[in-house]
Amino acid sequence: MTDSADRLESDVPADPAAGASSPAPPTPRQLALRDAVRDIERHMAARGWDGPIGVFALVRTADAVAATPALAEELPEGTLAVAQEDPEHLTSIEQDGLPQAETVEELLAQLGWPEQVDGAAVVLERIIVPPEAEQGLPDDPHEALDALMAHPERQDVRMAAGVLRTGESWCALRTRANDNDDAVGGSPDAVPGLVAALRATLQTES
Fold first, then answer.
1. 15: Cβ–Cβ under 8 A, 6 or more apart, which residues?
2. Which tens digits make up the pLDDT trace of 146-176?
3. Which of its termini does the chain have fewer beta carbons within 10 Å around, N or C?
4. DSSP bridge partners of 157
5. What pTM was computed for the model?
């Protein structure tokens, strides 16, 4: 019923003086995915909290416009110019009419993408509580959820994750307690289970 991010890293590289080696610089493709996931999270954040799960297809903007020139007229102002400078730039397409599912895992297991789709992203909200909060919860799921919702140390977290067919991933996380664009954390593997479930959707074509 509760999920937790295994690790939440900032975008600041490790300090070599602290004994850790500096990570390899991100590739243009990794940067494009990071920017796309951040944009999707901000888009969902603008709708407010307590929203439904959002699922998005990711396509390379330049390739999509080359295949469908009319798409250029539907892009936000300035996007085409950016894509002409950066062939890795990604456009997200929100999916309507998602299949019915009790959990995000069940939902993602029903999805598949045509080969023209370069990646996928999902956004959802979760309640995070300390592990000890799950001890002694009522057996009834609704009563258990009410108990978690009332827990004084609960945290509401919005998780956005995106993956590409070529293997890159990025996750962005925002808490309701720090609901500010500048306070959104992220890393490639902040929510590994969500990343793995998304990758599986790209292995099945619709």
1. none
2. 776 676 677 889 999 999 999 999 999 999 9
3. C
4. 126, 175
5. 0.81
